[in-house]
Design brief:
single chain; Arc Repressor Mutant, subunit A; PTS-regulatory domain, PRD; 5-stranded mixed beta sheet; 4-stranded parallel beta sheet; 28 helices; 15 strands; HTH_11; transcription regulation
Length: about 675
């Protein structure tokens, strides 16, 4: 049966690669069977195509072709088949997905499996299995597990049940769990299986209980916790319970998350399988702590006991490292302790259970979050280094980016200097109408203006230009002949025009030039059509070019390699170099002559920057907003390349403030 199923998948794969008809004898040649066999396979192939979002269309004299009617169903299946049947290059993504397939097969297996067994079941060669086993063993080790040796008893994968479930959850989430199964054994997916109605109701109970409690978790983790509840019940019923030590039980029961977990399990007991042991409830509570989203007003010392003191001690050490490496004292930002402690406490709990890597998520998901905080992510690597030095364990990329999110919140609390705007208001409907016009603007933006004076258009001729910054008028453009910058709006401004008043008039009062001047970025070097070879060679080039001595060259190269996972998003690579290692401030843009790969991700532009913040908070906020805009929209880089002016940076940052808070001081 395995060979027949593989042939159906191969036939579908061949048809999915082209939009032209292909004859049955050609299909037979490609899969190595007779034409009669292919024709006998057609009914099953039609059924598989239909389930995968496509119709198998047959035309006499031409052959067969697939007509897709549901792209959302078709594309995941096609992608998964490409991973297994394509002979064109071995991409890291393909290797990663094959490793996940192997893990899905062996994680629930009790008997010893050979390479030949796995290769046959997954329709892969023995050589590819051997190559992928390196990644399999690496990921097992991250979850405190390993493969058993031939002379050992018990399951094929050795490790605790809790660690096993965490890896099962990771594999389920980061692979195509809604796509087809390419192998016969479906034991893995059966552990997550539940009637749809019950599954939705269990999730509803969990979320409602969470809403009614004082506990919070990140939204991205609600789905995985709902899935864990299904996995918990299935594994417990299969005779694979979690077992905790007495000290672990005592540790978890102190947290308020324990009562939430207990409440969830009790409310779910109307469904079969939820009559579980106390250790199962405690393990679920532990996950709530692992993925806690601690609110601003939480009393950390009351709710997290000695962990608060440990967190405070650790982030103080972290802040000292930021002061040393970036000449920046982030402890002068209000709320720094609460914000950073809230970010580190869940990691300390994970560390206590040797579970720092259990929060692994897909790289695609992390890429999206890196968009929002490139500078904060760079700072967060200091935390990762300190964590490894102190606790001898590594932080996952998920934890690093989550902490970067807390850092980013802190940086966004830095206020730019703001000078209230002096504006003239004039409405074509007359003086009274202009007064109403003024009141509409003041009702929404009054505190942003130092004055908002009403004049007739002709009266404006008597006013000194230096007394006002803007004119807000309801006249047509051709009637305006004054020197003030002007915004034309309707007599009763629309919502869009009110936004224009904020984005153009009010944001002009944000004083960005002092922050830019403080950075001493006197020149912008542009390298067009740059011939990029690979990541390693480019990092060597930058290190030798920027380092002020041999020791600094080595440090730059090591640091850039260490932080590479948070350097790329949206085809832009940002390399931030610590200022004490370079001769002078750096701001360079490398425009590649074609799309290339940097750490397995596509890039078109590389930005290299090094600045001395010199304890200026507005300068660090400026760089944070600037780098975020580079990641958000490549047009910002194109504009700089065309204009070749450092002064253009202020307008890029000003544009970022359309959606970010500013100071009214």
């Amino acid at each position: 049966m395995a060979n027949e199923k593989k042939r159906i998948l191969q036939l579908f794969y061949i048809l999915a690669q082209q939009d032209q008809y292909i004859r049955s004898y050609e299909l037979a040649e490609k899969v190595g069977v007779t034409e009669r066999t292919v024709k006998n396979d057609i009914p099953e192939l039609e059924a598989f195509a239909k389930a995968s979002g496509a119709d198998l269309v047959a035309k006499k004299g031409k052959g067969y072709v697939l007509k897709v009617f549901d792209e959302d169903r078709f594309e995941p299946v096609k992608t998964q088949l490409i991973i297994h049947f394509s002979n064109v290059g071995e991409t890291p993504r393909a290797q990663n997905d094959r490793s996940n397939d192997i893990l899905r097969r062996i994680i629930v297996e009790n008997r010893f499996l050979t390479i030949e067994d796995i290769a046959e079941e997954l329709y892969l060669t023995k050589s590819s299995i051997r190559e992928d086993m390196k990644d399999v063993n690496f990921l097992l080790s991250k979850f405190n597990m390993r493969l058993k040796r031939r002379n050992e008893e018990g399951p094929l994968v050795k490790g605790s049940e809790f660690d096993r479930r965490m890896l099962m959850l990771c594999i389920f989430e980061n692979h195509y769990h809604e796509a087809i199964n390419l192998y016969k054994n479906t034991d893995f997916l059966s552990f997550f299986d539940r009637d749809d109605e019950e599954r939705y109701e269990i999730r509803h109970i969990f979320l409602k209980t969470l809403r009614d409690s004082d506990c919070h978790i990140l939204d991205i983790n609600t789905q995985r916790l709902s899935r864990y509840l299904l996995l918990m019940v299935s594994r417990y019923q299969a005779g694979c319970p979690i077992s905790l030590t007495q000290n672990q039980r005592k540790y978890i029961r102190r947290f308020r998350e324990y009562s939430v977990a207990k409440d969830v399990i009790e409310k779910c007991q109307r469904f079969s399988g939820f009559d579980v042991s106390e250790d199962e409830i405690l393990a679920f509570a532990l996950l709530l702590i692992f993925w806690a989203d601690i609110p601003w007003d939480c009393d950390l010392s009351q709710n997290y006991f000695e962990l608060h003191d440990e967190a405070q001690d650790f982030i103080t050490l972290f802040c000292k490292s930021i002061k040393k490496d970036y000449n920046l004292d982030i402890t002068t930002i209000p709320g720094w302790s609460q914000i950073l402690c809230a970010g580190i406490i869940p990691m300390l709990v994970q560390k206590d259970f040797n579970a720092s890597f259990h929060s692994v998520r897909s790289l695609h998901f992390e890429d999206a979050r890196i968009h929002d905080c490139p500078l904060a992510a760079k700072f967060a690597h200091n935390l990762a280094r300190l964590f490894e030095e102190r606790y001898h364990c590594q932080l996952s990329l998920y934890n690093l980016i989550t902490f970067a999110g807390h850092l980013n919140v802190l940086l966004l609390m830095i206020s730019y200097s703001f000078t209230p705007v002096r504006a003239i208001v004039s409405n074509g409907g007359g003086y009274l109408s202009s007064g109403i016009f003024k009141r509409i603007i003041e009702s929404r933006f009054g505190s942003y203006f130092s004055c908002l004076d009403v004049y007739e258009l002709y009266e404006m001729r008597k006013l000194p230009v230096k007394d006002y910054d803007w004119a807000i008028l309801s006249y047509p453009y051709y009637s305006y002949k004054y020197d003030w910058p002007c915004l034309m709006v309707d007599s009763i401004p629309t919502q869009s025009q009110m936004n224009d008043i904020y984005n153009q008039v009010i944001l002009s009062g944000v004083q960005l030039q002092p922050a830019l001047d403080h950075l001493h970025l006197t020149s912008l070097n542009i390298y067009r059509d740059f011939e990029y070879e690979n990541m390693d060679s480019f990092l060597r080039l930058i290190s030798y070019k920027m380092g002020k001595d041999a020791e600094c060259v080595d440090k730059i190269q090591v640091d850039l390699h260490y932080t590479v996972k948070t350097c790329v998003a949206n085809k832009v690579c940002i390399l931030f170099i610590k200022r004490r290692w370079v001769k002078k401030g750096i701001f360079e843009i490398y425009q590649l002559n074609q799309e290339k790969q940097f750490d397995e991700q596509p890039i078109l532009h590389i930005v290299v920057i090094s600045v001395d913040f010199d304890n200026n908070l507005e300068a660090v906020r400026f760089v944070n907003d600037l780098l975020m805009m580079f990641f958000k929209d490549n047009e910002n880089l194109w504009m700089l390349i065309e204009n070749h002016r450092v002064t253009g940076l202020t307008e890029i940052v000003r544009a970022s403030l359309k959606a970010l808070p500013i100071s009214l001081d």
